[in-house]
Amino acid sequence: MAQQLGRSSLVRGKQVVVRAGVDNESSEVIFDGAIFQRNGVIEDVGDYATLKARHQADEEIGGPNFLVTPGLVNAHHHGRGITTIQMGTPDDSLEAWIVNGWARRPVDNYQMTLYTALQMLESGTTTVMYNHTSTPVATVESDVDEVLRAFNDAGLRVAFSVYHRTQNRVVYGDDKAFVDSLPADLGERVWRHLGAGTLTDDEYFGLTERVYAKYGTDPQSRIRVLISPSNVHWTSDDFLQRTKEWAQRYQTGIHLHLVESYYQRHYGTRHWGKTPLAHLDDLGFLGPEVSYAHGVWLTESNLRLLADHGGTVCHNASSNLRLKNGIAPVNQMLQHGVNVAIGTDSDGINDDDDMVQEMRLVSKLHRQPGIGAPDLKSAQVLKMATVNGAAPTFFEGQVGSLEVGKRADMALTDLSHIEEPYMHPDVNPVDAFIHRGKARYVDTVIIDGGVVLREGRSTRVNRSDLIAQVKESLSAPLPERVRETERMVRELQPHVEAFYTDWTQE
Ligand SMILES: [Zn+2]
């Protein structure tokens, strides 16, 4: 990405959020403020008049009607732009939904990643924790190249990992026993399907090693390479321990799903006699480098463990509702001092990777009933979507706030629409943004000092051309093998649902 090296800019806002705090009082903001950046690094932060007098910027961006925030960090995502609903997988309970999703048609990884990157940029996202799930063994290596090429072309910062899942792939129990219990013909088709998508542990480490060597070694680049056991019960204990060692060796992060559904929580009780997080603790797995997507069913004692060991919960409010997993205990997480970030999990409430809407959902969802009961302040939600996402993505010290020395990643939202036709003068712009903001009011997005979105349009990706290309590549009829998988999944689904009938909630 040509980042206009040597260029400087002065970015002005009605309010500049230098660093979001837990409430407006503890947030660091500057009214009629500005940021001066050169070569992608923030060199000065202060009031506009002072900075204007002090610096000769090549370009002035923004103005007195903009809210300038740190770029948003989408801390958990797998998306391809075209959503699961669009791909024919209706929202359902997670376990049924995953099996249904086996039947999705193959896609062009470059196009789809570019599309999701574009949608994220359009809602002010500058960094994404991207967890790659589609891993047909035959193409995974080139798929990874295509995904990262698209993020690079869009200009987005990415913490990348490939998801690894080798067990409990059909149900949470003994896959072999379960598949053997199916009608023979169905069982054969299920095994055939699973065989095409499974890397061995050694193959996975080989792949991750190569991806890391190719993309993950430059601390100044916009890519971080993390490692990802998909979930505690979806890989072996031996694999979990190897990922821990690997992450320590390369000083990088581990990203996994954890207790997303009740069934995942209950699996722990059935198989280890303890919670999944307690099992991870016994393996010596916990630590500040680990981030956990969902965490809906974390217990009080789990939260204490997490607070002691560090690490981040990546909260996916929309996805948790859509896949019938419940509401994560976010207020309790924060009360325990756990770092909580926000992700869309490619299943946002608007079905379009919109982080502005996701922040609003988070701000409403955790308002517990009653005077004095916990709720989330707008600043806290913005904090979760910015600075709290820096550590788990391994861009800590570079993104999440607009302090001197950090990378110049920011979003400018036009407040004139939000405040129209009237807004009480005392309403804080961050409150106005969280309660009334829309992705379409995000006017400008800057990453590494380069403008990647101007007047709501990507400076690097032509939206209508991209849509035309996606249409074209998906215009062919569904391949017969996708239809075959759909038939298999329809036959399999009642057996999967029956498997869980006695897993009643405690
Ligand atoms: Zn996920």
Write a brief structural summary.
With 506 residues, the protein is an alpha/beta fold. The chain has helices spanning 48-54, 94-100, 109-122, 140-154, 175-180, 184-195, 201-215, 237-250, 262-272, 276-282, 300-309, 317-322, 330-335, 355-365, 378-384, 415-419, 429-436, 463-473, 480-499, and strands at residues 8-19, 28-38, 41-47, 59-62, 66-70, 72-77, 125-132, 157-164, 223-225, 228-229, 254-258, 290-294, 312-315, 339-342, 410-414, 442-447, 450-454, 457-458. It is globular, with a radius of gyration of 23 Å.
Written description of the protein model:
- The protein is of the alpha/beta class and 506 residues long.
- It has a domain of 117 residues: Urease, subunit C, domain 1 (Roll).
- It is built from 19 helices and 18 strands.
- The strands form three sheets. Strands 1, 2, 3, 4, 5, 15, 16, 17 and 18 form a nine-stranded mixed sheet that branches. Strands 6, 7, 8, 9 and 10 form a five-stranded parallel sheet that branches. It has a four-stranded parallel sheet with strand order 11-12-13-14.
- Helix 3 runs antiparallel to helix 18 and helix 6 packs across helix 19.
- The radius of gyration is 23 Å and the shape is globular.
- Bound molecules: zinc ion.
- The site of zinc ion has 5 residues, from loops.
- The site of zinc ion (ZN) has 5 residues, from loops.
